[in-house]
């Protein structure tokens, strides 16, 4: 049976705690709960039309089909109750105007969660997680990364690399190639790490990037 959902916001709570208690969040992170999401999505028509041209431009890219398939996988697996929390607690940007020239970027609160770039006619992904999930001693300080595990999560070891963004207990993973990105997102330990990081930042309050949310991309992410 699916766990209960909170229907009335609780006083002095923020983020996902308005909808899911901490036990429900932990169960979802561990893959032990299937959450009941909203049936309908709220949206702004003005916001939808704002990024239609960018979305159409994205569809003309050679990577479009793989990109949309990966976005669906991410939306179904990595975001809790995504319909209920769309735009206000997470957002997806289409061809955002940043210096690194991504194809799409998913954000929550003030934090980047997941980004896809063009890599020739293929794709490259950047994913942020907690370093403590990948340190060999399970502690946040830099060093001692479980490289052997990361290399097992992609089709060839050369497809994965990592870096240390600024901030406490933050770890960045780069994955090259659509096939490796799909394999990476399907690995149970990776999925748990992504879910934990995403829940951490969705719990920090309202999404700061609501104005860049592309409903057309979200349609693809949230399609049944």
In words, what does this structure look like?
- The structure is a single chain.
- The protein is an alpha+beta fold and 224 residues long.
- The chain has nine helices and six strands.
- A hairpin with a 2-residue loop joins β3 and β4.
- The two termini are 20 Å apart.
- The N terminus is likely disordered.
Key descriptive features of the protein:
6 strands, globular, 6-stranded antiparallel beta sheet, 35% helix, alpha+beta, 224 residues, disordered N terminus, 9 helices
In short:
With 224 residues, this protein is α+β, with helices and mostly antiparallel strands. It is built from nine helices and six strands.
Question: Layout of SSEs?
Answer:
Elements: H1 22-29, H2 45-50, H3 52-59, H4 64-78, H5 82-85, E1 91-94, E2 104-108, E3 111-119, E4 122-129, H6 147-152, E5 160-163, E6 171-176, H7 178-186, H8 188-202, H9 215-221
Antiparallel strand pairs: 1-2, 2-3, 3-4, 4-6, 5-6
User: What percent of residues adopt helix (DSSP H or I)?
Assistant: 25-40%
Mean pLDDT: 91
Strand fraction equals: 15-25%
End-to-end span in angstroms? Answer: 20 Å
Rg over CA atoms: 17 Å
Q: Can you write the helix and strand succession as a string? A: HHHHHEEEEHEEHHH
Task: Say how many strands there are.
Answer: 6
Look at the helices and sheets and give the structural class: alpha+beta
Sheet with the most strands, sense and barrel status: 6 strands, antiparallel
- Stretches where pLDDT is under 50 for at least 5 consecutive residues are 1-10
| Cross-sheet strand order for the largest sheet | 1-2-3-4-6-5
The quaternary organization reads as single chain
Shape: globular
Q: How many alpha or pi helices?
A: 9
